[in-house]
Amino acid sequence: MEGRATEGEEVNLSEAPLTGRFHGRPSALPVKALLATVVGVVVVAAAAWVLLAGQTYQPPSGTQVAVPLGKATVNGHVLPHVALNFSTYPFSNGTNDGAPVHPGGNRTWPATGPTPNFQVPANALVTVTVRQYDGGAALNDPWFATVRGTIGNVATIDGRVVHAINPNRVGHSFLLQSLPGAASGFFVNVPFPAVNGDWADSGKHRTIVFDFVSGPKGTYVWNCEFPCGQMIALFGSAMSTFGYMSGYLHAV
Amino acid sequence: MTTALKLDSASTPTTWSDRVRARQGAVAGLVVGAVAAAVAWTGAHVAFEVGNWGTDRVTALTSIAWILGFNLGVGTWNPPIGWLLGWTTDPELEATEAGAAGGRSRYLRFCTDHKVVGIQYLVLGLTLLAVGGVGALLIRTQLLSPHSTFLGPTAYGDVVTLHGLSMVIGALLLLIGPFASFVVPLMIGARSVALPRLNAMGVWIMASAAVCLIATVVIGGADVGWTTFAPLADQASPAMTALAIAMVGLVACVILSGISTVATVVTMRAKGMTMQRLPVMAWGSLVAAALAVATMAGLLLVMTFVLTDRTMGTSFFVPPWGSGGLYEVMFWTMGQPLLYVLLIPPAGALLEVASSFARRPVVNPRAIVVSFIVIAAISFVTLGHHLYTAGLSPAVAGASMALTELFALPVGVVVLCLLATVWRGSIWARLPLFFVYLFLWDLVIGGVSGALLGNPTTDRSFHGGMVVTAHLHFMMVGAVLVGAAGGLVYWFPKFTGRMLDERSGRGAFWLIAFGIQLTFLAQFWAGAEGMARRVAWYEPGFQTANQISTVGAYLLTLGWVVLVWAGVWSARHGRPAPADPWRARTLEWRTPTPVPLRNFPVAPVLSEDPEATYSAWTDSSTPGAVPVGGHSNTGAGRPSAGETGGED
Amino acid sequence: MPSETSNGTGSPSSDDQAAATQRSDGHLADGAARPWAFAVGVGVAVTAAAAVAAVVLPGRALPVAASSTATDAAHTIRLYGLLAAPVLGAVVGTAAASLIGRRTNNLDEPPPDAPPASGRPATMVGFAFTAVLVVAVVAWGLVTLTPSGAATEDPLTVRVTGHQWVWTFAYSGTKVVGTNLVLPVGRSVAFEVTSSDVTHGFHPVGLGTQVEAAPGVTTELRVTPNKLGPLTVQCTQLCGLLHSAMVTHAEVVTPSAFARWLVTQGVAPTVARTVARVGP
Predict the structure, then answer these.
(1) Total count of domains within chain A
(2) At a CB cut-off of 8 Å and minimum separation 6, what does B134 contact?
(3) Whether residue B127 is found in the same domain as residue B72
(4) Which residues of C touch B163 (CB under 8 A)?
(5) Is residue A35 scored above 60 in pLDDT?
(6) Is residue A5 domain-resident?
(7) Among B193, B315, B308, which Cα is nearest to B256's?
(8) Do the chains contact at A140 and C177, CB–CB below 8 Å?
(9) Would you state the pLDDT for residue B620?
């Protein structure tokens, strides 16, 4: 029995010899813990600041309430008529027509201004006027170069009425759809052509006007179908962050 | 003694390395990590243009520098560096590192005492579970109404990812730390773990990786879900790069601690503790650790490939050269076994609980151990059931289904043995036992729904829907977390030296029990109606089910909060616990609480009594055995652990 | 609970079968109770309730089955529910019965030890029972592995493309591409599914089947809608920002209505009638 106990003792720790000298130090603890907490908070805050600097992915807040224009008759129904205006910019703090869009935003990303969120009356005729300041390229799928879901499936681009644009020269687009279970089949797609030539930081723009009838009360979402982000399919970054090339449309 | 060692050693105890090591710890880690991250961030901005790949390279270098720097400051790298440079170290310092100094400051240091490491993992795991719990509340609040704009789609997706990953990792850390690191070595009568430095490295690597994981929500978020499927992961914001590096840290943590657990159980068992007599809890941890070590490479590979796709322009998961299908297969080679890495140890823990509170040895332990091994083996070949909708041929789908349904046999045996242990037992209705019954109920619901999802025909109706969510939460919360909670409550007196307040513990238990049923049964309902998972918006017809689920989630969260609060309060003010409050059968209760540095005053030796079964320990009346725990007769005159001299 | 501490369960009674009879304080139930009868009673009740739920609840919750594949799936759900009912009954019955036997709520003292149990007969019986269930489950799964209502010779081919975050449907034989899915009833549809960006999941809810839409790959899904009415198409694979909005309404219509719809989409009437397989 004694022998066994000794054997058991030899199942050894891999640490160096243990001394009894370190038992009396717990008094240092509260100071250390306090210090650790304070320094920890400061360091974590500093690290977060370093990581965040230049990467503030904050979408702009605020909602643009549509301007009433009176009444309009669509397919024999008299509907309220309202107007929305917005612009698409190559850079989120771009100043093509004045105000920066996303103060403190990710400046290299394209953006929609003055705000990507809209409010319109339900079941109303909405006339949208878009000033498109960005250059462009090809769509991932040329199907999105056709106008769908507007009055007459057409849009007016720089004064010309068109049903489709060149899918290889698209700047941005506006694809509006309902959320699950609401307004069955509600769908609007309008492509915006690219600005030709020197577009960056210039005031050159294309003007797109289209009309659609808003659906029943509820929340709708819109997004851009032109691949204007980064990474796979160029749908990362601005395209995958709500508020740059996407937003809400509230029908009230 | 110390003087003698000084003379013998090649260097003085005031070498530069010793001076540095005396100052290492969590504080130094934060400072060095932050400085390294700042330097890397600045340097990377000089080297790379912010944009398509550049931001990812900056994020990758900053994250890696943070992890390396933090662990340099903590002292995680001391073992390999010291070995390479041939450090000879002041024994005082070594002893401090081993936890001999005592005091709470050792919890903020690189400490090789496996009990300290276990508690460090416990705190880290609970922190991650708290983060995941906040995520769960945000998700359920968003889903209170069908078209809510509470979070918005970006934040919702980021929170879904963070919730899933921090919950899975948090649960895993509870099993690695308090279970495998703290309890198992005591349970097998070891006086240390086999690889204490390896064991201690894991927790600090994971702590720094957890910072990267949580940071994802402030540096852009990764809207990808816990499975982080590529090519979506290749598209997500640069936060995905930080997330992938956090996952690499997780792999390191799991493999290091897994190797330590396997080595400990295989080599450090007390005399007489044959593998035949190993408690089922220790067997469960052994099997789970071996399974984790064997499969974690899958996660390492997919995360490495996502990193190179994102930072170097490779296309492992991008067509035409790569494919997302490759990611799915590689991910599930790890993901499927991981679910059983999570499930086996809680089952083992609750078997021990059932044994203690039904007052009899675990019934038919051999069948349980064989079942654990069979579960681990089958889990390697059942990833096909995640791919039924990916275009599997009928032959592969059929084989995957047959293998998947086979899980019912070994899992069924474990359930049967658990039931047989309490059946006609002498029931002592204490809090840990409550969790056994909840575990059984949840495991049956989760298992039956798993059998349903294992069938290709029904899976093609439910894949990607809330039925899957409900099933996996019955397994992950109802079985894994409930099992882990049962184990933590059971070993609470050994962890803290105090008794958990039974009354508030029971209140928490009932909140948890009913919260789980409300939350996740309602999700079965929503899923059957056709609701997809990971959606921020759903059809208004599913609202009732979602409201019930949200109310359940609030109750469930309240239950966990009350339980943790009861634990924190009891750890400070609870009734002092005797060494063996449960009159249990396993060795960890045969040593004083708080557990001495070397675990047992005298190395325990198990009796060779042939009547003794797995969980047997001996008492001094058994011939041929050395008593364990208390003040030993045989060890009289020998120095006990904390006082053992260096020359011993 | 004033009498908790006075519970005498710590008494060294050698015959623990007979020891625990102090019911007066309400804490220690009688070991001589009939746990078998109790277990069987609870088990049968739970089994019956679960079986009823397994038969009734799927019909109340599942979307209307619009194909034989969906009907198969609903049958499978009910069958597995019925097979699972006795499992739940057995576990709940046994667990509940274990609590009515010898039991103490005394916080301070554990009751005397229970006699060790081998558990082998129970485990064997339970294992055999589980094995029978597994064989049944696997056999049924293999029988239904290939969807019934085998594909006809002449399917309507629809090319489905998942975009972030819209589905488009192209009807072969026409130039129609749209975001609406309109299907003729009673005719096999071959969906050729792919993606233009990341992985999506194409799930026409109600048709009881789905397939992944992966970039660079075309997966095929064949199903025959057999019920007129609306359906929902949803994305079942997290695909980024507006995954939650990637839901489209679909409609199953008669072949002649399908031909009329094609005409509204700009297809020549003769072509539309050919594609829809309706006479002039």
Answers:
(1) 2
(2) none
(3) no
(4) none
(5) yes
(6) no
(7) B193
(8) no
(9) 37
The reply to whether residue A221 touches residue C180, judged by beta carbons under 8 angstroms, is no
Which are the contacts of B156, defined by CB distance < 8 A and separation ≥ 6?
Answer: B138, B139, B142, B536, C244
Contact list in C for residue B357 (CB cut-off 8 A) is 110
Going by C-alpha positions, the residue among B182, B299, B292 that lies closest to residue B249 is B299
Tell me how far apart the alpha carbons of residues B411 and B371 are, in angstroms, rounded to a whole number. Answer: 7
**Residue A243's closest chain C neighbor by CA?**
C241
Q: What percent of chain C has pLDDT over 90?
A: 66
Neighboring chain B residues of A25 at a CB cutoff of 8 Å: 101-103, 105
Per-residue model confidence (pLDDT) at position C2: 37
A window 85-144, beta carbon within 8 A of C: 140-141, 143-144
pLDDT > 80? residue A30: no
In this prediction, residue B616 has a pLDDT band, given cuts at 50, 70 and 90, of: very low
Domains and CATH numbers, chain C: 22-108+116-143 (no CATH), 156-276 (2.60.40.420)
Copy the structure tokens of residue C154: 């002449």
Touching A: which chains, 3+ CB pairs < 8 A? B, C
- What's residue A37's pLDDT? 66
Same domain, yes or no: A196 and A219: yes
Q: Is A17 in Cβ contact with B644 (below 8 Å)?
A: yes
Q: Provide the residue range defining the domain that includes B33.
A: 22-84
For A37, name the nearest residue in chain B, comparing CA atoms only.
B27
**Which CATH number fits the domain that encloses residue A142?**
2.60.40
Say if A173 is an interface residue toward chain C (CB within 8 Å).
no
Contact between residue B499 and residue B581 where contact means Cβ atoms under 8 Å apart: yes
Q: What is the pLDDT of residue C200?
A: 96
Check if C26 contacts B (Cβ < 8 Å).
Answer: no
A180 with C230: Cβ contact below 8 A:
no
Angle (nearest 5°) at CA B361 between B355 and B367: 100
Asked whether residue B641 carries a pLDDT value surpassing 70, the answer given is no
For the stretch B581-595, pLDDT in tens is 998 888 899 889 889
Q: Best interface-test mutation with C: which of B159, B327, B332, B423 has the largest number of C CBs within 10 A?
A: B423
- As a whole number, the mean pLDDT across chain B is 88
B356 sits in the region (left: phi over 0; alpha: psi -120 to 50; else beta) called: alpha
C274 — phi, psi (to 5°)? -65, -45
- The 10s digit of each residue's pLDDT in C91-129 is 999 999 998 878 887 788 888 888 888 888 888 999 999
Say if C157 is an interface residue toward chain B (CB within 8 Å): no
Tokens in use for B505? 């513990």
Alpha helices in chain C (DSSP H): 16-19, 35-61, 68-100, 120-143, 255-264, 269-276
Looking at residues B183-199, what average pLDDT do you find?
93
C71 touches chain B (CB under 8 A): no
Contacts of A184 in chain C (CB under 8 A): 230, 249
Tell me, yes or no, if A31 comes closer than 8 A to chain B by beta carbon. no
Residue B52 to residue A231, Cβ atoms within 8 A = yes
Domain count for chain B: 2
A19 located within any domain: no
Residues in chain C with CB shorter than 8 Å from the CB of A153 are none
Same-domain check for residues A134 and A106: yes
- For the segment B454-513, what is each residue's pLDDT rounded down to a tens digit? 999 999 999 999 999 999 999 999 999 999 999 999 999 999 999 999 999 999 999 999
Measured CA to CA, the distance from residue C147 to residue B247 in angstroms comes to: 40
Residue A32 has pLDDT above 70, yes or no: no
Give residue-wise pLDDT tens across range C122-164: 889 999 999 999 999 999 999 888 765 555 678 999 999 999 9
| Interface contact A5-B537, CB threshold 8 A | no
Chain C residues touching B422 at Cβ < 8 A: 95, 98
- For B315, the 3-state DSSP assignment is coil
Measured from the Cβ of residue C155, the count of other Cβ atoms closer than 10 Å reads: 17
